[in-house]
Here is the input.
Amino acid sequence: MAGGFAVSAGSGRQFEAKITPIVIMSCIMAATGGLMFGYDIGVFGGVTSMNDFLLKFFPKVYSKEKEKHLENNYCKFGNQGLQLFTSLFYLAGLIATLFASYTTRRLGRRLTMLIAGAFFIAGVIFNGSAQNLAMLIVGRILLGCGVGFANQAVPLFLSEIAPTRIRGGLNILFQLNVTIGILLGNLINYRTNKIHPWGWRLSLALAGIPALLLTVGSLLVVDTPNSLIERGKLEEGKAVLKRIRGINNVEPEFNEILEASRIAQQVKHPYRNLLQRRYRPQLIVAIFLQIFQQFAGINNIIFYTPVLFKTLGFAAVIIQIVNVLSTVVSIYFVDKVGRRALLLEAGVQMFLSEVIIAVVFSIKVTDHSDNLSHGYAILVVVMVCVFVSSFAWSWGPLGWLIPSEIFPLEVRPAGQSVAVCVNLLSTFAIAQAFLPMLCQLKSGIFILFAGWVVVMSIFVLFFLPETKNIPIEEITERVWKQHWFWKRYVDDDDPLRWA
Here is the structure.
């Protein structure tokens, strides 16, 4: 065990806790859900550009690929039909998370992660062995369902099981695994692209490794005390709380969770309750964070880098390594400087990098000519790394962390479900709209997203309260009721009257 620490409760009591091995191992195992999510993101984009894959499942796209040198530089990066197929992943996840909200509350966070692992494994089997487009679509839908369940349960699990002082850092393990998964997917595609004609199968089949890790990990971890107590397993919940905190005196924290559970038990319709005035601050913040995360321009940056790769082939690997390392930076600083500071600093960094990229492309890339010299390509790669690094220690991980910790227990699964739905819906919208926007706006698309970064930063500055080092069941009292704007919505009425 590591050294102990104490966290002040709202009533002046102290929540004692130690950073125990069981907490660290549970969080690492749970975060493998992010590894699966990231690997799919990293590997599938590469697979859908492999000639062997296109020739088998999308022969028309394959034929069109051969003629891309005749097309506008800004209009030749994809096919709407292929995009729609890829986006089935997000639509399936969106629908699945609605069911995952129920299982998370009624069956627990641990079992929901196990269901996610089972969906992942089934999807990998269908994709890796696909003989026709129908099998590929089924596999894609199953993987999306896995994402819906994992993204619902894992952030909640991490926020509830972690000691308050390091809750942010442990929660960001999920996003760290996402970035590692993306990097691994890119590296594996680089090798399998040279294996003909079944390299794409190997890329898709290797997703079974993180899927298996999540499934086995879900069998080994303990459920959170919050979930156990909420489901009436009081003695088991207290026993788990003692194990994960490394102490016997857990009464103050146990009683606080018990009170939150008492309120939660009275809520029969969490989605309907979520619309009540008292939960409006949390709901609005969670929704806007998900929209902003996708509209920051990260997909714009990642999708458009093929222009760079023609000049600097190593750019993709550099960018993904920066992505991973910068997420580690977030783990270190999120519980030290806070959520708001990281988001506001990143806003400045992201805005400047996107503006510089827009200027370079507007000058050097025309409709039918790519005039990026080696020097300009290096400049843009540096700016892309600046953007990716700032996103990776701010909006990337905090977009998942903050919604998982701001809702009170009685509506927490429903609130997380809404957050995941909005995230996946925003991702789907960007995926479908990006290529037409790129074709019409050209380099101006970077200015558009830079404008969004300004809006996001203003929102954070005025409307996002700080939640670092505050026990998760005390955030309503110590955050929302103290905020200059949101306190008017969170009154002192009995929460049961909203049930």
